[in-house]
Amino acid sequence: MGRDEAPDIGRFGRATAASAKLVTLAARVGADPLESGDAALQRLVMVLMAVGVLPLTILWSVVYFAAGAPLAAAAPAVYSVATPINTALFAWTRNLRLYRFIQLLMTLVLPWLVTMSLGGFRNSSAVIIWAALCPLVSLLVEDLRQTLLWIVGFLLLLIVSAVLEPSLKPPELPEAFVTWFFVLNLGAVIAVVFVLL
Fold first, then answer.
1. For the chain, which residues make up each domain, given as ranges?
2. Tens-digit pLDDT profile for residues 62-101
3. CA distances in angstroms from 167 to 120, 155, 175, 182, listed in the order given
4. Is 21:48 a contact under the CB 8 Å cutoff?
5. Which of 20, 43, 137, 192 is 20 to 30 A (C-alpha) from 103?
6. What is d(CA 81, CA 182) in angstroms, rounded to the nearest whole number?
7. How far apart (Å, rounded) are the C-alpha atoms in residues 125 and 181?
8. What is the pTM of this model?
9. How far apart are the first and last CA of the chain?
């Protein structure tokens, strides 16, 4: 397979019809007939990451709300509402730069807001790990200079979190809830990275 050719999903055998259909639909969002193979792949990765995590953000929002943490539920809810709107706008305008910036910014900032609302790293079950997707995805879809800016942003948010953590008042969440959300956060982020790569 040449460098500019898109991978043939059908040959992987394990891909379900639903996932193949999703990839096919995502490949058309914001497509430009004049784009190169690399640009098409970058666009596909960005759309798959943005739309692919929607079921998880909806789930996280519902679970946080049910657990009595409405402020923590708000951040994934914002992503769940803003991403379809931003993706529809991208399909209409084909402005990949703006689409990518908005999605990466939400991916960076919203998990940090959840971390702050739940009282820091431990009480939030390391939900800030979702923000690490920002520089990782940027590495796949942007140039190195832009990626370095996202990495610096991520590191700054980690430092701010560590400084603010002692003054945060976490909501009372059951210990089992916090433990299982560690599993969900770490497992889901690793799965998303694996799928994107």
1. 9-196
2. 999 999 999 999 999 999 999 999 999 998 888 989 999 9
3. 9, 20, 21, 22
4. no
5. 20
6. 25
7. 6
8. 0.82
9. 17
